[in-house]
Amino acid sequence: MHSLWVRVAEICSMAMMSCFTGVMLLVASSIVMSQLQPPKPIIKDFNVGISPLVQTRLPLVFAQGEYPPPMQDVLLVGISLKADFSAVWDWNTKHMYVACIGRYHTKSNMTVGGVNLQKTHDVTIFDKVLRSKEEAANWTLDNAKKYALENEELGSLAGAAVELMILYHPMRHYGYSPYYTVQPGKNPVMFQLPTAYEKRTEEDDKNAMCSRGYA
């Protein structure tokens, strides 16, 4: 007849084995899911609108005590689209983080063999958390603007070519949550920024400094 302590030890060992098995299954399923090619969202009617390119002062709240705030290149991008992300929503999906990313290149101070290397900038233009499969199935934007395309190097945005991508990140209840990028069209979506800057008055810069966004 087993003693009480032997039975307690058996129960504890069985519980530990069950936990270990569960963890191993969770890790294995995460690895397998990360290797599989997930379904892609359906993105249609994708359009882009841009504001005039300006050189304006950084808002005071971001200037870290510097006055007057430094100048920078600023432009707003409006996104219009109709998208269906329900195909990538499964039983393990809690929320879906979706973002529109703008990628452009500028010259850097580094040179190799006398050639200036390019610096790559990935900027979030718009993002949102889709909280249900129904919302994911009918995600619509109409000239939506959220974050400015900006650079502290004056003149760096003039004439720059910007490529747009859609990033989506299924946030899962259990296991690893990978993120993916997809082109919003059959071909890469690119546009070129204006080469000329819109003139702004001193009053415009003053309003921009004191505002939360950009005038």
How would you state the average pLDDT, rounded?
80
The main β sheet shows up as: 5 strands, antiparallel
Question: How does the helix and strand content classify structurally?
Answer: alpha+beta
Total individual domains: 2
Radius of gyration: 25 Å
Shape: elongated
Number of distinct beta strands:
10
- Range of helix content: 10-25%
- Counting DSSP H or I runs of 4 or more residues, the number of helices is 3
Distance between the termini: 83 Å
Q: Which regions are unreliable across 5 or more consecutive residues at pLDDT < 50?
A: none
**Order of helix and strand elements from N to C terminus:** HEEEEEHEEEEEH
- Beta strand %: 35-45%
Family: Belongs to the SPCS3 family.
Membrane topology: Single-pass type II membrane protein
Keywords: Endoplasmic reticulum, Membrane, Signal-anchor, Transmembrane, Transmembrane helix
Pfam families: SPC22
Describe this entry's structure for a reader.
By secondary structure, the protein is of the alpha+beta class. It has helices spanning 4-35, 133-137, 202-210; strands spanning 42-50, 54-57, 71-84, 93-112, 115-130, 139-144, 148-151, 161-172, 180-182, 189-192. It has 2 domains: 1-35; 40-210, no CATH class. The strands form 2 sheets. Strands 1, 2, 3, 6 and 7 form a 5-stranded antiparallel beta sheet that branches. Strands 4, 5, 8, 9 and 10 form a 5-stranded antiparallel beta sheet that branches. Strand 4 (93-112) and strand 5 (115-130) form a beta hairpin.
